[in-house]
Each structure stands twice: as structure tokens, then as C-alpha cells.
Amino acid sequence: MRQSNVERHDGDTGADLLGLPDAVALDAADPLARYKNEFVITDSDVCYLDGNSLGRLPKRTVDIVHRYLTEEWGSELVAGWSHWIDEAQRVGDLIGRAALGAASGQVLAVDTTSVNFYQLCDAAIRARPDCTKVISDTANFPTDRYILEGLCERYGKQLVLIDDESGEGYVTPEMLAAHVDGNTALVTLSVVQYRSGALHDVRELTRIAHASGALVVWDASHAVGVVDLQLDRDDVDLAVGCTYKYCNAGPGSPAWLYVNKHLQQSLRVPIQGWFAQQDQFAMGQGFVRADNLRGFQIASPSIIGMRCIEASFSMIIEAGLPAIAAKAALGTDMMVRLHDAWLAPLGFELITPRDATRRGGHVTLRHPDARQISVAMREMVKVIPDFREPSSIRLAMSPLATSFQEVWDGFARVRDLVATGRYREASLPTTRVT
Q1: Residues that are catalytic
Q2: Cβ atoms of 20 and 405 closer than 8 Å
Q3: What is the pLDDT, as a whole number, of residue 305?
Q4: Neighbouring-strand partners of residue 257
Q5: Is the peptide bond before 390 cis (omega within 30 degrees of 0)?
Q6: CB atoms within 10 A of CB 432
Q7: How far apart are CA 422 and CA 419, in angstroms?
Q8: In the Cβ-directed half-sphere of 408, how many Cα atoms lie within 13 Å?
Q9: How far apart are CA 349 and CA 23, in angstroms?
């Protein structure tokens, strides 16, 4: 059992509401508790609450990658391509089955989220050439907004960014309906907003966009592996996402793209790569596009990256997304309650929705000294968050790798760090990584 280094103060506000024994009891009843032992943890005293940025390393990844290096690449050499050639489709099907609610033949494990986002948004815009408007929101992930700016400049389209004045970074059906019309080529939003942790209503927002004839691209990077996505059921057109956050496939692991079967023959992505050629190994002149999902693939997949995805997504399949999402809801609820009891009196503000049905796997707290507090959390009390300009700290429940006691300990340490003012002793880092 994890040993808490935090002294419990029975007189604290909220101590009876959610004490250490409650966190221990939640862990004892947690059907996913055993998975924490399947991750590499080099310091058991660290409270790692940043799985929304980079997941922990699964032990089985070490074994699978070692076998790939020695038993596949090492011994098979170039002959390995006979079974590596279609890894993007095979592993894509695994991602779709484990985490996306997507039937076979609609997901590719390829490239980066940004490349995939560019490819699919470009294809969607060109599929509606007479429409002049593209819709996203001001709280969307920066890369998505930057790519959209470039595409709209290139094709002469108007980029409309919905602004949520509430501060939650959440686009309601009413807000989208006020902007989308028959002149809209593309609507693109994030399933979970990276800053606030707000969870969008994928099904209803997609329906509203479709009613006006627009295509929709969803960025599921902060949702995949923690939200029970159902892309087929919700009639999603196109989606992209990464695998290194809640999915624990490692830094720089391949991303994925989803293309609904009804669009695979009609959409054309701008980069016509060798893998998308109908007769790939004929090496002929002229491009003849494959009429299935391979028509969206540019080049060779990273096989070592595929093995990392296989290891991590096998855990997701075993645990089951409904159980993972249920634990995330409990974990974020604990964070909200601890914030209210301990941190709100110290000047913190919760910007994540309080409604559990509108939250992903992380919560975001705002404080005027957030940058220095986040540094002190890492250096002084071994709590790992991430900081987002100008004044936000994000903290995650990564269900397979995080215990409830880890969350409780982390919040208790932050409470003591800020209440004593010790955090002011921390020096701001020179690195640009936050």
C-alpha cells in the first residue's frame, strides 16, 4: 500500500467529507487497481498527475519492444516487411476496437496528430468547394487553430472561431447552431478541451453540423483512452488523435485517423503517398488512389511505434473503456471536492465543469501564482502537474496508472505547499517546456 507522507489535519475544512481512509477504500474497491503495478514506477513517492500530457511506461511495452528488436527486426531483416506492410491498418483496427467504438477498416495508426488533422481538414474543405466558412473555437488546441488559419488562407475561406465567454472553453449545441449554416464546409472541435477539461457533446454537435451539410473533424487527443468514445454510433465523419496521453504508448508514438466508411471513396487528402497508390508495388507512373482506407496513408508506419501501441491498447481492451471512464469520473469528482475543501480557500479557482457528464479525465485549476506553484509542486513535494499560460494547472486521473490515494496525497501536498507559502522559494525554470 502507498504510504502517505501527508499529515492529516482533522480540523481541516472538508476532512470528514473526503479523508485519506475514503481514498484507501476507493482503491480497495477499484476493479482497475491492479493495473498500476503494470507500469514502470521508479519513485513510489511521486504523485504523477500529468497522464493527460504523457502516460507512464507500461512494463509490457518493454517486453514487446524487446521482442520486436530481437525476434523481428534483428532476425527477419527486410523479410519482415511481408507482415509489417499493413501494420497501420491492423493496429488502427485495434485502436478502433479498444477505444473509439469504430468498426474495422476505418482507423489508421499513422504519422502525427497534426499531419492527420491537416490531411483530413484539407480534404473536408475541398469536398465542399462552394462553401466559404470553416468553424472552430478560440479554446481549441493551438496547432489545430494554426493549421486552420493556413488552410483558410490557402483556399480563401473565412475562419469563424466561436468564443465561450464563460471561460470553460465549451461549445454548446446552441452556440454552434448560431454559427453553422449552409455555407459551412467544415466544423472542427476537440472532444475534450485541452485547457479546461470540458467534454463536448459529440453526437449532438455532429448532428447540428450535418443538418447544415457540413463535414465534421473531431480532435480526440485529450479524450481517447479515458472517454468512452462511440464514433460509429455518433455518426462521426472524421477524427484524429494521439496515443501517448491516457493510452500510454510513449512520447512521439504514432497518432491515428478515423474516416467513416461512407466517405472513404469520395474524400481526397492532399498528400498522395506511395502507400495510397492502388497497385503499390507496381511503381508505375501516375497516381491511382486506393479506394479504401489505405488511400489516406502517406508512407511506411513506425513499426516500433506500432508495438508500443499494441502493448498499451491491449491493456485498454482488457480493462474496458466503460470501466476506465467510470474511474475517471470518480477521480475527477474527488479532485473537485478536494479543490473546494482545501484549495479554493487558498485562492484557487476551478475552471473545469462541475457536471461529471461534461468532464474528461483532467481538471484545471487557476491561481495567480500558478507557474511558480507548478514548479514547486515538482521540485519540493513530488507532485507532477502541467502548467498552461497564463495561470492554469492541469491535474489528471489517468485511470489505469493512477490510484485514488495518489490523487488525495497530491492535493494534500499542494494544500500544504501553498498554505505555508513555501512555493515562493521555487525558482522559475529556464526551459520553455511547461
Answers
A1: 141, 219, 244-245, 394
A2: yes
A3: 97
A4: 108, 240
A5: yes
A6: 5
A7: 8
A8: 24
A9: 23
